[in-house]
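G., the chain you wanted modeled:
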Amino acid sequence: MSASADFAKPRTVQTAGHPVAPASAEINGNRYADFVDAKEPSTERRRRPSPSTTDEYLHALPALILLDRLPIPMLATGLDGVVVYTNPAFATMLGHHPDTITLTGQRLPALLAGHSATPPRDCVTALRAAGTVVVDWLHAEGFPIRTVISDTLFVRATDQILLIGVTDITELMWTNPPEPR
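Predicted structure as tokens:
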């Protein structure tokens, strides 16, 4: 509940919720009857009407739900090198069960094979510049997973996050080994 700009007229919250008593500063004028129907904001989500077209359906989906459903491993990290998001496909690629192990909060050097001594910010710089270079991730059982990564999906200089898609090429390298030079 909040008061109007001149504090003389009470203003009720206009969202669904639970009954609430007015703040003491708002009842000094003995106008308690104005607050009988006042509501406290609720954390309940209001149900929106179902989208009528496929385009509306796609626009209504939150981004994290879409990322979670992608079969392509996805990783998001802050510029400080701390993982802020991985989808289930990424956790599975590294040998973790997505329901029991969370990679969020881990530093990139712990996930990148051969980079345990690299500062996390340098790992972010390396991933930004990787392009078509093979990047090795550390599997839960200790062996490297060979991958190529996409360009970051956030490209502005002011973006504070690096979001990349990861393609596992380990099997491909076993079935098509590079020819000797």
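Residues 11-16 have pLDDT under 50 and may be disordered.

Shout if anything looks off.
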